[in-house]
Amino acid sequence: MNILDNTTYFLYLVTLAGLLHACLQLPLANQLQLGTHILGRGRPRQAEWASIAVACGAVISVGAILLGAAGLISLFADTNMRLFTAGITLICSGVFIMFYYYRSSAGAQSWLPEKIRERMQRRIKRTDSWPSAIYVGLKATAYESPLSLPLALFAVSLLLQVGFQDIFLGLILYMTCSVLPLIVVAIAHNFHLPLGRLVKWRIDSKRFWQFFVGLSFIALGLYAASSDYLRTGL
Amino acid sequence: MSTGTHIVKRSPGHSEPFDERKLYASIYASCLALRTPVGSAEITADKVCRDMSPWLENKPEVTSADIRRHAAVHLAAYHPNAAYIYKHHRLML
What we know:
- The structure holds 2 protein chains of 2 kinds.
- By secondary structure, chain A is an all-alpha fold.
- Chain A has 11 helices and no strands.
- Chain A is globular, with a radius of gyration of 18 Å.
- The two termini of chain A are 19 Å apart.
- Chain B is mainly alpha-helical.
- Chain B is globular.
- Classes of the chains: A mainly alpha, B mainly alpha.
């Protein structure tokens, strides 16, 4: 049975890729930081819409990443080569995530260079309108694009093999799944739920999370690369 | 409060006189970030500032990191979750 010809199976894999994209936590960290910062200034209403705005910014950025991935993947005429490339880049990203995603210092500091993180902190402190909150979400997702691009390459490679309507369904699934944590946090903000426990959980479970996400990237990459291998018979 | 203490900041060669209002504001903000009622946040910030006074006395210089660590310990006695946010808010990205 050649399961990769099955559209439903493709869409499951695209959803899985979207969920793995959601596991990259920089946009979530930005959203939480911005939310706590605005709440700390005594503006709960502003924190609610800022949280939604960050999610909107992330959606725009994920859309741009998917477009970029479509552009890159179109360089390869052959489907097998596309999947192989996506697989190899996924494995590289997975190894990077496993060893370098979080710094060894206290807290949950990401792999980004110190200067960029400080600039992000300053940007969050200055954020006081919805366009700047959208920009925070957009930028945070864009900064993680070196790690999320392989997932987008994989999803786009699969979606190019399905029907026109299913392409849109796949894109919507990917985009929704990739910003799911941001949507959940935005809802939590709007229901006035305190997010301190989420912040604590993020920091306490960072090593497990890093290992789990890295391993999942590698597993998906191996699958993508080897399924290509099996299909071409190389 | 004027303790005569100077805070050494992260940037080289930069220090400034200790300002209790800044400490109060940062603790108050941490409490508000967890949707603590305003009155309760004020009381907590006030208590932590009072608890910090003996430690700050007779210290000509302290670092801002020292203040953060000690304030977090005192804050944990009143509001553990706020203390966690207070301690880690610079280390979340």
